[in-house]
Amino acid sequence: MEELAQKGYVTPDGLRGTRFGEFERLDLGATSVERLYKAGLDFSVAATVDFPCQKYKAPKLPKNAKPDTVYVQRIGDRVFPVAVAEWKDPSRLRSVDDQLKAAEQAVYGALAMGLRIALTTDGVRNRYLDAVASANAGEIVEIVETRDFSSGVLADLYRGESGLVRNPRPLAETVWQIIWHATKAEPKDCLLTFVEIFMLKFLSDNLPLSVLASDHRFDALLEDPEEFKRGKGVTQIEYYVNTIRPRIKQVFTERLVVDDGAVEDVFGLATITSQTSIINGFAFLRSSSTTTIASYNRTFCEILDEFQNFGTLTNIDPEFKLRLYETFLRRSARQQRLGQFFTPRNIVKSMVRMAMLNQLPDGSVVLDPAAGVGGFLLEPLLFPDSLPGNISFRDGLPNQRVKLIGVDVDVNTNILAKANMLLHLAESVRDPHTTTTALNQALANTFLLLNENETLGSLLYPPRASVDVILTNPPYVTQGSSIYRKEIEEVNGPRNGVTLKEYYDTGGLGVEALFLRYIGGALKPGGRAFVIVPLGLLNRTAQRMKEALLRECNILASIQLPRNAFFNTSQPTYILVLEKRRTVAQSRPDVFCAIARSIGESLDYERVPTPDNNDLEVIAELFIRHTKEPKGSPVSRPSVYAGCEFVKLVPSSSFASDERWDVVRHWTDDEHVALGERAGTIDRDEFIQLATESLKELIDELDQAQRELKSLSSGTTRTYSLGDEDQFQVRSGMRIRNSDLREHPGDIPVYSVFTRPDTVKGCISRDWIKDHGVEPEEFPSVSVMATGASAVGMVFNRESGCVMTDDVVIVQPWSVATQLKWRTSTSGDDVSQHPEQGIDMGYLAVALAQAIAQGGFVYEAKLYTRRVRQLQVEVPITDSGAPDLERQRQIAALAKRLDMIRAKLQETGAWSKSVRLS
Hints:
Layout lengths: L1 H5 L3 E2 L2 E2 L2 E3 L2 E5 L5 H7 L29 E7 L2 E10 L8 H17 L4 E5 L4 E5 H7 L13 H8 L9 H16 L3 H20 L18 H8 L3 H16 L4 E2 L3 H7 L5 E2 L22 H14 L8 H11 L3 H6 L6 H11 L9 E4 L6 H4 L12 E4 L2 E4 L2 E6 L2 H14 L1 H5 L5 H11 E3 L17 E6 L9 H9 L9 H4 L6 H13 E12 H5 L3 H10 E8 L12 E8 L10 E5 L19 H14 L10 E3 L2 E7 L18 H7 L5 E2 L1 H29 L4 E5 L7 E4 L5 H6 L1 E7 L10 E3 L1 H6 L9 E5 L9 E4 L4 E2 L3 E5 L3 H10 L15 H14 L10 H5 L2 E5 L8 H30 L1 E2 L1
Parallel strand pairs: 6-7, 11-14, 11-16, 14-15, 16-17, 18-20, 23-33, 26-30
Antiparallel strand pairs: 1-2, 3-4, 4-5, 5-6, 7-8, 9-10, 12-13, 17-19, 18-19, 20-22, 21-22, 24-32, 25-31, 26-27, 28-29, 28-31
Helix pairs in contact: 3-4, 6-7, 6-11, 6-12, 7-12, 7-16, 14-24, 21-23, 26-32, 30-32
């Protein structure tokens, strides 16, 4: 009885568990079946259990079984058990043996209590088991049920109706077609109409009569149209519009002041007023001015019949609503024009998992500044390892352990988010102790409509270091996005303590660049953001924007999503994970990079579930694992993580402000082939749109580069010979054979003749190279490929700590004397990493590559040290004749950007060639 008492299940009226729909839930683990019987559960303890366990070591007596969770049903003053569950950490359900052991434990616990239903779960994946059938068969027998576990699913299982899957798609599709044929409304307007009727049915099935009287309920409309008109004097649709609809708006008021001061403080606003209800999009009211509302009564009654045939909405699966939104929004033309792409639930689910919201302390703030229909904030309420029970109601007031705030500029989307939230609070809606006033306040405090400026929306009031986690999919708009910056320039006076013109002056194209500035400023030190961004944002040469973001944040992860992951576009997208820097001097971690080829559902119109094909789910689990691991030495090159071929850890230096932030380049061509990546299928119109956008971006970047090149090339230069030993060191690497690498493996990277800068020949033992009289490179260098038909003459920058083979020429722009002087005179606190003698290392690589190309050496079979010493490079100098380091670095940065532009151009061509047009 001790555990039962500690958890508050023992009351003066007997056992009472946590409410779970029409059931109650007892979370246990240390209480035996015998104790539950003695505590008052109405069942008989089995004397024996005739089931052959292969992996689970069952107790000798069934009465000693200890289920993790027992679900019970209260009928009058009697409490009957209906099911048991075994909860396991995901790591304990990986192997087939682990899964069998958990299933046997659940079945044994159910049989010990005389129950049919058992399940195993890790909080994400569920396995439903028929204990009685398993005992009869002598092996585990599963119940065919694909939905996530909920009280509605339990009710179906208990009543033997598990096969009766209430799939929202047929209902949604049918009603959509009915509405569209009658009104020709856009999909979003059809959705809003569906939501209105859906909410009427839902509220009618759940609210008490004291709140929604009989005359204001769905059932009041279910009458023969002629009899209804004789009795009421109007048609059903007129009665709904003039009587029922106003009552629902009265219950869920359109104007309510946010009463949570913490929410107002986030945006620096003294007062925020919610201006929407849970309904306001009845397409029949928006139709032709020549058509009366009564003329739609037959259509309206047809829709009512569809809902009535669907069944009650009392024990509705919370995922029902999200699936409905997917059905309606995936083809919404208006959504596509706005660049607001509804985030598929499977992507939301993985991002929420990565955010580890359950670890947030009380009072933390989770924000979505482009909330849409609210998936990022409401999905966590569904997951046991996220924020279950986060929203509660006590003494007529709403309470949130972690504050969830969603902002949007669109009125209709805000309505959809509130309706969505109400469905997620279905149990509270049914609870007679929860008032509609409290429900209203919870909706108003969570989903904010900030449309004072309909162009800027949430950007008008940027939070300042006040948010713990941001989960968002900001709008993607590049064409015509200049209107946003013009609008910002027109804003007078400060907003939340900042002048917007200065605050958002960080460069970058598109609205998503403004949102990244918003996000970087909003996070608290150590706070994290999980943001969906287009590929174009990451591979643009937007150095100023990236510098500004890196001043505030570290990049934790860059995850490529598959094309067509979103309903409305095949635009390549990424999940970018950021963490606000705690100090200016904080080190930067390795970047977790991944390529998701699948998201657990087909990437076509049908969106067929494919739970066994979900790279993104694996990536989310590995990200969590990586985040929790003690941090060791940073990686020196892209390295496969945890044996997963589509996940790598990449040095943070590869995500500097002058680098691309996408991940494709960190996998070799052979690795991409091994991953089996395939080009997607898009229609011709979208191909033209995507190709045009890509080419326009490239042309803009080339124009800018050309202007900079003209400016930087106009200065004076001096010719330097690499044979000048007072200025350069030129030498070869050491001989290292493949057999040496196999026989003496270690951790020192070995670079040889390759066409990619990040390709290593292998890693060698430090002791082995020391025995051969060589130490790892003490300083950075520039390497020249001396041989190889396709590699000869290629030039790469190399960091210290590596070794190079004897077919690579090593160049350093300082003399031996300068090196000795630097070594003896430099203190341990000196931030310089290598000697300097007037020539920048990055510029030297550019100048060397140019000299080799101009000299025709790229066609030579050999380019060893003697020939390299014959090369000459032009070095920018100042008016006084001294080497101009600043101009050198600018030229090196420009050359790097040109390489990035060339790579993007090549990728665009490869995509154009491989993509399939429908």
